[in-house]
Amino acid sequence: MYEVEYKQAKTVADAAALLAKTGGKPLAGGQSLIAAMKLRLAQPGTLVDLSGIADLHGIRREGDALVIGAMTRHAGIASSTEVKRAIPALAALAEGIGDRQVRNMGTIGGALANNDPAADWPAAVLALNATVVTGKRRLAAGDFFKGMYETALAADEIITAVSFPSPKKAAYVKFPNPASRFALVGVFVAQLADGSVRVAVTGAAPAVFRATGIEAALAKSFTADAAKAVKVDASGLNTDLHATAAYRAHLVSVMASRAVAACG
Amino acid sequence: MGIQIAMTVNGKAVDADVDPRTLLVDFLRINLGLTGTHVGCDTAQCGACTVHLNGRAIKACNVLAVQAQGAAIVTIEGLSPDGVLHPMQAAFKDCHGLQCGFCTPGMVMSALDLVERHPGADEATIREQLEGNLCRCTGYQNIVRAVQQGAAAMAK
Q1: Which residues from chain A sit within 8 angstroms of residue B113, using beta carbons?
Q2: CA distance B125 to A120
Q3: How confident is the model over A240-254, as a mean pLDDT?
Q4: How far apart are CA A108 and CA A163, in angstroms?
Q5: Start-end of CATH 3.30.465.10 domains in chain A
Q6: For position B1, what pLDDT does the model report?
Q7: Considering only Cβ atoms within 10 Å of each terminal Cβ, which end of chain B, N or C, has fewer?
Q8: B42 Cβ under 8 Å from any chain A Cβ
């Protein structure tokens, strides 16, 4: 790991000021960032640790929405009775991230800001039409994710929380890579409170995206068979040593159908 | 520039001036001489470096020492301060839950977090929850038996 300076932020404003001044990177749980720094794939001059900012921790209800603080750890979300009651699909998704040690450190805010092409949380945020709250503004999910490891966040902008509106039904199903356990393809299906259907896919392309063909099919008939019958276009999907674009396209329909079935 | 850190490790207060890029596992092994915590893959996959940070199992090779500021850390050495094996360690010994032994400290620390969060876990749950710990000898059958026996002994 290259040399780095370290600062502890006390408040969100303090963190933003430190980031603006140093040009550094925010440190949440560090489960992706520290690994990348060890491999010298990332080389921030300064780390601004967000763990000491009390406002970023915790889970609460705000009207119909479930609001999860950005520094809440995956394990805390997985075991939260509040999350299990409001949107059980989120607790199940959190329980499936990485392994237990990673879930004990990694945070929802860190995962969203990193926007790994195979991360689980972006699928939930996009499918549930959640709002990403930062120190400066509120971003609709559709405006937040920009591309591979890219988001709408400015260099000194920090996610403070994610606000999930309660859906009628929701489920997430992924096909994990047998070795890394990252999603080869993961599909989050949600029927929102207004009856609209949103389907978000992770792992298949350079960044999370909505499978609009499957959404249209499910809007007509919310059944596993309807999802499975949709042929997903493979153009633009990833091909690598684990799977071809055509195989991933096939998996999108299959995972979507399993997610619909899991919605009950 | 060094950073002043303070934490408790196995119940003892420690403090030091560290380079910010110091990994927690290196701080434990090099600064404190607690070499029971192993470095296996050094890429946060194998879990040999698992320790407890405020009661949660974490991979010490993927956490900076400065992130443990003010925390309570427990390593494998902290389980048997008076030389008597912890029930989970005794179960690994009884069940032959180790071959070369390299992964064992991480397996035991991970198993304790597992038992805490999933009391009465069945075999499938234990296997799933040990996903973050790899045994290169592939001795999983006996490791899973050891966790079951250790969990039962701890429940008594």
Answers
A1: 100, 104
A2: 21
A3: 97
A4: 12
A5: 54-165
A6: 60
A7: C
A8: yes
Residues 96-125 of A with CB under 8 A from B: 98-102, 104-105
C-alpha distance from residue A175 to each of A83, A152, A180 (Å): 23, 28, 11
ipTM entry: 0.96
Mutation target for B interface from A49, A57, A101, A105: give the one with most B CBs within 10 A. A101
| A54-84 per-position pLDDT tens digit | 999 999 999 999 999 999 999 999 999 999 9
Q: Are strands A25-27 and A46-49 parallel, antiparallel or unpaired?
A: parallel
> Do A100 and B129 lie within an 8 Å CB cutoff?
yes
Output helix, strand, coil percentages for chain B, rounded to the nearest 5: 40, 15, 40
Indicate whether B5 pLDDT > 80. Answer: yes
**Residue B43 sits at the chain A interface (C-beta within 8 Å):** yes
Taking domain A54-165, whether its CATH number is 3.30.465.10 is answered by yes
Please tell me which of the candidates B23, B63, B69 has its beta carbon nearest to residue A105.
B63
* Cβ pair A3:B113 closer than 8 A: no
Q: Where in chain A is the domain with CATH 3.30.390.50?
A: 169-263
Hey, what domains does chain B have and what are their CATH numbers?
3-76 (3.10.20.30), 87-155 (1.10.150.120)
- Mean of pLDDT over chain B: 96
Q: What is the DSSP string of A162-208?
A: EEEEPPSEEEEEEEE-TTT--EEEEEEEEE-TTS-EEEEEESSSSS-
Look at the domain A169-263 and name its fold.
Answer: Enolase-like; domain 1 (3.30.390)
Q: What is the pLDDT of residues B80-125, one digit of tens each?
A: 988 899 999 999 999 999 999 999 999 999 999 999 999 999 999 9
Tens-digit pLDDT profile for residues A88-142: 999 999 999 999 999 999 999 999 999 999 999 999 999 999 999 999 999 999 9
